[in-house]
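Saturday, quiet lab. Running sequence design on the structure tokens for the scaffold JK sent over.
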């Protein structure tokens, strides 16, 4: 993944944005349902994943190579993909 920027959201969370450069992961993201919550969105070329910086170690904030597992969950009114493993 390639670091893009860090911004603060409306809930005062610092969010880091990364472009996904792995073609296999991009294909997996493309296959996900459109009408559910996802921690990523389609950028100009590739998908962009957003991660709260409190889950990142200092050296991962601008240079990120990680393993990410996502699963589909339904919680009451919300359903979507959630990161279940991040290392």
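Result came back. Writing it out in full:
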């Amino acid at each position: 993944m390639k670091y893009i920027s860090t911004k603060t959201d409306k809930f005062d969370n610092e969010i880091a944005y990364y472009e996904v450069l792995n073609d296999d992961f991009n294909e997996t993201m493309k296959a996900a349902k459109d009408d559910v919550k996802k921690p990523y969105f389609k950028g100009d070329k590739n998908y962009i994943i957003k991660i709260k910086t409190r889950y990142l170690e200092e050296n991962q904030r601008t240079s990120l190579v990680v393993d990410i597992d996502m699963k589909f969950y339904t919680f009451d009114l919300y359903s979507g993909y959630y990161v279940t493993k991040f290392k």
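Notes for JK: Residues 2-57+66-86 form one domain. The longest helix spans residues 23-31. Ask whether to fix the surface positions before the next round.
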